[in-house]
């Protein structure tokens, strides 16, 4: 029996899962900032998906699921003033710096 081989289909798409953890007492502020960012970012060129979720088991933890048509679209998004302003505004609201997990579609 051979070992299963997992492959990723060739694509220019970029998928990410950033995680934001609010300081105690700042959960609502962080959530509102993420929802505002979601509304604006969905209009950015190349945006395939941009959705904010609340972790059902860890209050104050928010997961962003985002997809971009190309890495250039993600770079342009990250260079937008609304992203830079968001990052500056939420820094004091977070318990720890946010983490980003790159995702790779299996099929």
Name the CATH class: Alpha Beta
Return the CATH topology: Alpha-Beta Plaits
Count the domains: 1
Provide the β-strand percentage band: 25-35%
Shape: globular
Radius of gyration: 16 Å
Number-wise, the strands total 4
| Amino-to-carboxy terminus distance | 23 Å
Average predicted confidence as pLDDT = 92
Chain oligomer state: single chain
From the structure above, extract its key features.
about 110 residues; 3 helices; globular; Alpha-Beta Plaits; alpha+beta; 4-stranded antiparallel beta sheet
Write the topology of this structure.
Elements: E1 14-21, H1 27-41, E2 47-54, E3 61-68, H2 71-79, H3 81-90, E4 99-103
Helix pairs in contact: 1-3
What would your notes on this structure say?
By secondary structure, this protein is an alpha+beta fold. It has one domain: Alpha-Beta Plaits. The chain is 32% helix and 27% strand. It has three helices and four strands; from the N terminus they run βαββααβ. The protein has a four-stranded antiparallel sheet with strand order 2-3-1-4. A hairpin with a 6-residue loop joins strand 2 and strand 3 (61-68).
Summarize the structure.
This protein is an alpha+beta fold and 107 residues long. It has three helices and four strands.
